[in-house]
Amino acid sequence: MKSNVYIETFGCQMNVSDSERAAAGIRSAGFGLAQSIENADVIIFNTCSIRAKAEQKVYNRIGEVRKQRGAEQPIIGLMGCVAQLEGEEVFKQAPAVRFVAGTGAIERLPSLIESAQRGGRRVLDVGERAAANADVLPMAERHSEYVAFVPIIEGCNKFCTYCIVPYSRGRERSRPASDIVKEVRQLASEGFSEIHLIGQNVNSYRPKTEDGLEGFAGSTPFSRLLRAVAATGFPRIKFTTSFPRDFHKDIVAAIEENENLCNWVHLPVQSGNDRVLRAMRRGYKVADYLEKIEAIKSARRDISTTSDIIVGFPGETEEEFEDTLRLAERCQYDSLYIFKYSERPGTPASKLPDTVSEEEKTRRFIELERLQMSIQRPRFEVYVNSEVKVLAERISAKSLNDLTGHTSCHKVVNFRGTVDLLGKIVTVRVTQAKEHSLYGEVSN
Fold first, then answer.
1. Please, what are the domains in the chain?
2. Which SS3 state, helix, strand or coil, does residue 373 take?
3. pLDDT 10s digits, 24-78
4. What pTM, to 2 d.p., does this model score?
């Protein structure tokens, strides 16, 4: 057995999926997979660069780990978005890092580790995936026994002015539908209960051929893919993230037609003001977005909606922020992820004067959060005394006597239960609504 490798992941579901596939490749190359940093010979940090805070977090974490390990220092490597963007600069920021692997180098990680073990001090690979393997994803070591991420598209062509993803992940590349369906069937045979079709913009899905989509109706390749995946009979199918400009009402029709397509849509709006949306280069107006929300809320099924909003974008006035408050009030989201604008070097927005102070960004964040909680609280309370179907995913972090999981509309539910329920979809009677979750007991 070669050295033990531990991967610590920061950021989005795509990063989690990358770590899963990196772990599988590392294991197949003969390395062991450590369960903690304490017994790892090699530690790889899979990094996120979506915000400055996320980037700094990994550098701070490297310092923490080095201090924790004391005299027994492991080989440290960086992979992911920060690695791709920073390249050689990583070695200057964190001299303890021995190797850097970009987003296209997952399959080459074993050789990078071996180079570092042979004494290499600045092993670097930020090249693209091999052309022969461009449409093929390696096998994965899943983060959960019951929920699996299935990448369908990687990269982004949108170039929103604040976003670093097109630079760290490259242009959109869609997997063949036949490969996706094959992976889904394999996951079903392995006993998984829920999958998430993931990508930076899932409804931008455009495969090179129709292989795997023949015979499925739909206005877009993504809606046909949804129907193809649903036809496998997989118990629960979710997808994220959607881009408003590419979100077609036929997606809603597909959800209505297939019970196993879960009733949840994450549709990031980012701002409720047209001028700010233009400055962000989002490619739609508020009215366009509201049409998409109306299509979702008019569905025969009760579809949960969640969104992302950035406050304090350069030049955002108080009146423009108030437009965002009005949009949030109108949309009545089940949950909302709020972010203070964070400048990312190299993006068009980084050249704009950042006219909104940090204090003002914080005030707007708090005001929007307060509004969202006033909306969210009654939306959660309506579940009290009703029954919901919950996939029991793991033991609760707060109580060994409780399990935690998600509904099909992606609400977190904690409930009293025993470990024999893990992996099962159980009926839970909701007894209490909390700020961001529900609590209940298994119905007899």
1. 4-131 (3.40.50.12160), 133-381 (3.80.30.20), 387-442 (2.40.50.140)
2. helix
3. 999 999 999 998 898 899 999 998 887 777 778 899 999 999 999 888 899 999 9
4. 0.90
